[in-house]
Every structure is written in structure tokens, then in C-alpha cells.
Amino acid sequence: MSFDEEFANTYKNDFRLPERISGTYSVFSCLKYTEDRQVFLLIGKDKRKYILKTGTGENTDRLENEYRIAAYINGECGSDEFPRNVQFFREGKNAYYIREYIEGTTLRDKIEKEGPYSEKAALSAAYSICTVLEKLHSLPEKTICRDIKPENIIVSDDGSLHLIDLDAARIVKEDQDNDTVCLGTRTTAAPEQFGFGQTDEKTDVYAVGMLLTYLVSGGYDTGSMKRSQTASVIKRATRFDPDKRYPSMLSMKKAMRRGSFAPAAIALTCIIGLAAVAAFFMIPKQDPSDTAVPAGVTAPEPSETKSSETEDSVVTADPISSADDDYTEINPGWTKSGEGEYSYTCGYDEEHIVFTLSADKYFSQEDLKCTAVSVNSTGEEIWVCLVAPDMSGEWFHSTPVNITGHKERVILDIPDGVTGNILLTVDGLEKDHSVTVSDIFYSDRKYTGPDIWLNNGDGSYTFTKDSLDSLSLPIDTTADLTYINYVYADIEVTGEIICGLAGYNDNGFAYVDGYTLENETRRVFWDLNRNAHNGKIASELAFICYFLSDELTVTIKNIVLSQEPENMNSAA
Q1: In this model, does residue 295 exceed pLDDT 50?
Q2: Which of 131, 160, 321, 461 has its CA 20 to 30 A from that of 180?
Q3: Cα dihedral across residues 400, 119, 222, 242: positive or negative
Q4: Rounded CA separation 74/255 (Å)
């Protein structure tokens, strides 16, 4: 029996609206009816729909709190993401709250009917909710929602999202250790909503993480999520300890916005951003081969972007820390903070910051084979990489590096020289945080320091972690990837990694979900047709590895590209 039927059969004859309401509205539908709390859909004389919430006992104070916070938000934000107040009053033991009705479907109903969202659509929806909550958290009196769940989010016909229920919202009181009243929905509420501390913006971060889990899986089991960068965002957002979550909606938005949650996408974003500055920039598309690939073919050796040969030691120019260097002349906003060290402090949130290098002072453009810099940061995570135009005019980049409050080495190996400036790009620096560049050097040899893939000379490649958290291993193949459906490899790991595939197609960056491997040797495979995000990879195929252990060694060998699946009993 529906609420409407139960209401009509049981309560309607005894239910009366106060004259202050019945003179203007009539009940169109009953949405919820309990002894101390009711929700109705009303029709006004203006033919518009409204929501009426009524309550007795402690619910009267909750309704008044919702009304006051909604009034404050409407007044401060003037935003369409929240329903507007109409009126609130008490009469006898009851309270009555009328607000605007938002046409549309709840996220819960939409997913129950249509199934979970794609990863891309889920991230887009979660990003929109973060933007709405960011407005609340930025109000003069910081407001926390505390009840973000699919039932409280309306998807309107134009696809926009609206938070419709603020009865659990509160204004943060900095001098409180715990909330006075613990409210929220158990599936999405953070631990501090049940007495583990005072709620703040990180409470809503937790709820958005749970919401994102629901959007991509249809449930709330974060432990069942397939390991991916989206799962990593969820994992951090839903940490028990609030201090280990994203500190703000802005930080969480930046994590969700990073390409398709893969470092190579960051580099692509950086390069695209540079295109607006460098008018001559263009990424040529590769022409596919006309030759089909046999059913099974052993892949050529991955391109040796990091040489393992040590006979030719790295020959570097004089260190850039020499007294006659001053990079501030070509890098406005950067200051010299030490010998050979340059810093930039962000005055406001900036998506892309660039530091220009002057390699031509030390090597001719044709002779330059390597540039490396050390980068440190304060605050939340940033992504950095080096980019440069090669001799054909095509821009290429180093492996993007994730930095969170520590120093990392960023290395760009240059195969045939460069035709323009080498640029260090920084993505995601937040207001009042700094980034520092130091230990700059150039070389006429490939880099042979730490954090490289070593060519073992037998078709296998080994990586031993020094500092980097991620590193790709390009597969240098002339095969037309149109005909490649499967990629196989034996991976031996001491430690823990996520290993996936990445590359590009006409839509931009594309990737295939990775495997989590820990202290094991496995034959693994990727189905490029079934498991690819953003379309099948068409060029620049590479293994993309995320290193989850501080002590780690991984070897990739026996790489096979194939049209047909291998007969593989141990395939993951």
C-alpha cells in the first residue's frame, strides 16, 4: 500500500490543515506519514507544487532549524541548487514548514530504475554536489549539510542537481568538541555524526565519498570497489579519521578533476593548457597501419625511456645553483629562495603554473638529452611534469609526479633534442601554498639515476622504487592497435602496486582498469574492448603503475599483444 493509499484509508478523515495553509493550498499527495512527522505535496492556488513538512515534539525544533538554515542559505547564496522557503509557523504542539517543490527524480530512484552510473557520469554528479557544498562551507557562518544521500538529491529534467533536505544541517561552532544533536543517515553519515567529534566540512567530504560509492556500484560497500583511481578518491574521502580525508570540497574536486584519474591525463591537460600560450602547438595524430596483426604476437620491447646502461655516466652541466643564474627574469612571480632554489606562493587557487627552464645556456637544442629538477610543495597534493617540443615540433612530457608535502625528482629524457623551451608545469596548487624548484640540471646523456625502468636485455623491465609514486612504461609497438584486443604480461612484485594500461584515442586519454598485485607473480591480461574507459586505446600504449609500498620492486616481462585471448588458466 502506498503512502497515498494508507493516508486516504487511515488518516485523511482525521487530518486537517491549519487555516493559514488550507486557505491557499490543498493536499495533492502524502509522501510520508508517521505519528510525529508528516510530509505532503501541496498544490497552491497559483497551480504550483510545494512541500509541506509537519512535526510534533522534538521535530518542531528540527523543522525550525531547517527553515532558518534554508533562509540563511537562500539569503547568502541566492542559489538555485536549494529549494526556497515559503513559510514556517507553530500552532499548538505542531510546527509547519512549507518550501518550494523541485521537479525531477531523486538519484536513488534514477539508479534503482536505470542502474549505477558510469564512472565518468558518477564523477560528474559528485563534482556538482561538491560545488554546491563548497558554497555552504564558504558562507560567513560555515554550514554543514550532514545528510547527503541519493534520496535528498533531485535530478531535474535539464540534468542539474539540487539538495532538497537540510533538516540535519548545522552551522559550525568552532568551540564545540562534539555535536549537540547527532543526526544523519547511517549509510552515508561520517563517524563523527555518532559522537566521535564535532562535524565540519570533512563530514560532508565523507558523505560525498559514500555517495560516489553508491553512484558507481549501487551500494555502500567501499571495500568491494574495484581498485582504480576513483576507488582511491573514495578511500581517502571515507577515512575514519577526518584529518586523513580531503580537507575541503575544493581539494576533493581537484582530485576528481585530474583527467580520468590517471597521471598521464594530467600531462595531457597541462599540454593542452600550454597550447593557448604557444600558438604553434599541435599534437599530430598517428596514422594507423594498413597491416592487420596476427592472432597472437609478442610485443616489441617497451621503449627505453630510461636507459639501464651505466658505461656512459651522466654528464651534467654546471649546477644551476651557480651565482650567475637568475630564473626570476623569465619566470614572473617566482622568487629566488636559496642558492639554486626558486619558489612560488599561490595568491589564489590556480590550475596551472609554469616554470621555464633555460637549457640552451648549457647545451645546444640538438645535444640536450635529459633535464631533471627537484620539486617540493606545501599543502595538499599537486601534479608536476616537464614538457617540451621535440625536433619534429610535437610536444612530449615526462611521467607526471604526484607530490604531497615532500620533495620529488622530475625527469625528462629527450630522444632527439628540443626546438623550444622546456617547461615545468604545476597543477592543483591552492591558495597560500607554495611550490619550490631546485637542483636543476641538464645532460647530454639519458638519465641513469633512481626511479627508472631498467632494461634487463631479455625483454623484461624492472623498477625499484626510490621516491616516485607512479611511473609509466611505454610499449613501443608499430602494430595497428585497431586489431589488438588483448594485452598480456607476467608481473612479479615485491611490495604492492596497481598496474593498468593507458594511451590515447580520438577522445583523448583512455585507460583500462588496473590489477592490484602484492608480493606475488601473476600472468595478467587486459581486454581493450570491454574494460576501456573513454574508448579503446588507439596509440601510445603503456603500462601505468601506481606504487603503494615504500619498499617495492616490480618486473614486467613476456608481454604479448593479441587479437584473440590466450588460453590462460591463471588469468586474473
Answers
A1: no
A2: 131
A3: positive
A4: 29
**189-199 burial: b if 16+ Cβ within 10 Å, else e:** bbebbeeebbb
| CA 184 – CA 168 distance, rounded (Å) | 6
340: left (phi over 0), alpha (psi -120 to 50) or beta: left
Tens of pLDDT along 400-423?
A: 777 777 788 888 888 778 888 889
Whether 288-308+448-572 and 263-281+311-447 are alike in CATH topology: the answer is: yes
Selected residue with higher pLDDT from 165 and 258: 165
The pLDDT, as a whole number, for residue 342 is 92
Question: How many Å from the N-terminal Cα to the C-terminal Cα in the chain?
Answer: 47
When mean pLDDT is compared across 215-219, 419-423, 448-452, the lowest value belongs to 448-452
Q: For the chain, what is the radius of gyration of the CA atoms?
A: 28
How far is residue 345's CA from residue 431's CA, in Å, rounded to a whole number?
Answer: 8
Cβ 439 vs Cβ 373: under 8 Å? yes
Share of the chain above pLDDT 70, in %: 74
**pLDDT on residue 112:** 92
Q: Treating both helix axes as pointing N-terminal to C-terminal, what angle do 201-217 and 229-237 enclose, rounded to 10 degrees? A: 140
- Using an 8 Å Cβ cutoff, are 500 and 513 in contact? yes
**Domain 105-257: CATH architecture, name and number where available:** Orthogonal Bundle (1.10)
Q: Supply the CATH classification number for the domain 3-100.
A: 3.30.200.20
Per-residue pLDDT at 226: 65
Q: Which cell goes with 339?
A: 642558492
Give residue limits of the domains in the chain. 3-100, 105-257, 263-281+311-447, 288-308+448-572
Q: How far apart are CA 484 and CA 144, in angstroms?
A: 50
Kindly indicate the confidence band of residue 301, based on its pLDDT and cuts at 50, 70 and 90. very low
Q: Distance of alpha carbon 351 from its chain centroid, rounded?
A: 14
How far apart (Å, rounded) are the C-alpha atoms in residues 291 and 338?
A: 56
Mean pLDDT of the chain: 75
